[in-house]
Amino acid sequence: MRSGTSYFDRTLFKKNWTGYWPYWASYLTIWLFIMPIMLFMEGRGGTGTALNFYQDVTGHIDIHIWFAAIYGVFSAMAVMSPLYTSRSANFYGALPVRREGLFLTQYLSGLSFTVFPQILVAILTTLVGLTRGAFSAQIILTWLGVGAGTMFVMYTLAFFCGLFTGHILAMPIFYIIVNFLAEGVYTLVMGLCQQCYYGFYGFADWVEEAAVWCGPIMRLSAANWYYNKATGLLESSTRNPLPNWPTLLIYCGVAVLLFIASFFLYKRRKLETAGDVVAVRAVRPVFKYGLAVCVGLGLGIITSEIFGDGSLPYLVVAWTVVGYFAGQMLLDKSFRVFRKWRGALAVGVVMAAAMACVVLDVTGFETWVPDPEDVTSVQIHDLYSHGTLGDDGDYVGFTVTDRDLIRDITDIHREAVAAYKEDRERSDELNYISINMTYTTRTGEHQRHYWFYFDPAQVNTPGTAAHALQDIYNHRQLYWTAYGFENLETMVRGGRANLTEAVYTFSCDDPNSGAPELMLPHFNADGVYTQVTFSRHDAEELFEAMKSDFFSGRIGARTVDGRDADEPDRELRFYYMADRNTRSGAIETPTAVYGPMYPETEPGKYTSSISIYVSPSAERTLEALVRLLPDAMEFMGWK
Known about the structure:
Layout: H1 10-19, H2 21-44, H3 50-59, H4 64-80, H5 86-94, H6 99-131, H7 137-162, H8 170-196, H9 205-213, H10 216-221, E1 223-228, E2 233-238, H11 244-268, H12 284-307, H13 312-332, H14 341-359, E3 375-385, E4 396-400, H15 403-422, E5 431-441, E6 444-454, H16 465-474, H17 476-483, H18 485-493, E7 497-507, E8 520-524, E9 527-534, H19 536-551, E10 570-579, E11 605-613, H20 619-628, H21 630-636
Antiparallel strand pairs: 1-2, 3-4, 3-5, 5-6, 7-9, 7-10, 8-9, 10-11
Helix pairs in contact: 1-6, 2-6, 4-6, 4-7, 6-7, 7-8, 7-11, 8-9, 8-12, 12-13, 13-14, 15-16, 19-20, 20-21
């Protein structure tokens, strides 16, 4: 006798396809125009080649994640809509199909809305490629594999989120929250710490990386594919620690676990939860208190900008209580929730205690200064102070392991803490310093960022910020590296870069009064300036002269009280071209001729520059300039 139950219902599957045809029809239509139709028209117009075909198909791989993010949730909403009204939920529950059969039928229906069109588009695109003499199974299968994989991930996540709610409008909201919750909480907590902790700059890189991994949309969208014409293969380039395929496979593995969890949730789901914002009773407290905390942090930080300093802790607590009642209203579907004040009181007290710990600095974050002997190295992300020269050495970053320099940095750190305790304000006798640093110690990494005022008159007093900063300024090898000159020399010696030209810029009041023809007048917001471009050979001569002055302390030298603001700007900028880190590893020889200010880049190359202020004491550099431009140097007042 034929069984009255089944694990898959073909009639229901067909009903979903005919009833929700706008979903799969629009998805198919978009991809037909993007891929086979457009590629066919390009080939028909005579502009398409096999290489262009490969590159066009490759360029469409990256947009899979955005289609998956949108159509994944729409497809899930369509097939799960019967769960969100009591009438339809009871009807489907009465069908002669087991819960397992309903789950598999609905799940596979929504997934097929996009996967079947992808297969059809891949077949048609292959046929178009064959008409243009271009066929690569790897490219087509990669397009199809990435599309099906990303859709499986995003659709399964949306389906999983949909089982926690009984309201169709809540489903996409939950879906968006899950994708960005970790990054959102990370941003809120970091914003709170930046406002409450003096010296706080950010968490360790792995914390941010973990938060990004919790949201597949941003993580998968960070990777991209390109066609390598040298190897004829598709390769992935990404700013993530893993290439594209392993990242996608990891998320597919997580999606399999979500599919299994969805299966058991679907079996145990109660039909009477249709219409509830949160359908799973065990998740209701998590939703309510999680919403309270997020509302408290988010709106507390925003409104503190209006009420000013000192209001943040109180506003966070107040908004946390408001967030609790808002969550309770959503759960009860009623505004009469104030009788449940005990929960609001509990979460308010907990948040108040947490804010008290932050404000009172229970952890000792703000007063912590490391022992120099415990520090292995210090990475300076940026260092900026009053002692500027207006060149690329003003805002620098470097890593130090020298014990004396580490001691100088901890001295600066110690005075930054003291300046905060003293509430030191700006005066004519004080200069400022900004420093962002990461210590590597026995207990891990510690990052701090400070901006404070110090007394430059204490430059000869050991242990002060002025003395320590001048020590750092006087370390010529350190600043040679900070400018970027050491890296440039390394690339030149290795045959991976070469100087292309040098540009000397000089500010003046009247460039037309006796100026040589080789000096062209330019105008900007600061007034009038002139510039002269030197050939590659002359640039190399100027570089060697500048290097001699640099290590003798006659150029690029800074002091804690800064240079004379009335001195005219004299900048020498060295342009160079270097090889990119191509995957083929090929080093190409530059052949292009570049203009003085806006050099174009060859394939596989990039151009950059380093500028340095030419001080009156730069003897060797000035001698080279006088030798190369005697008339111009006289006009500039150097002779």
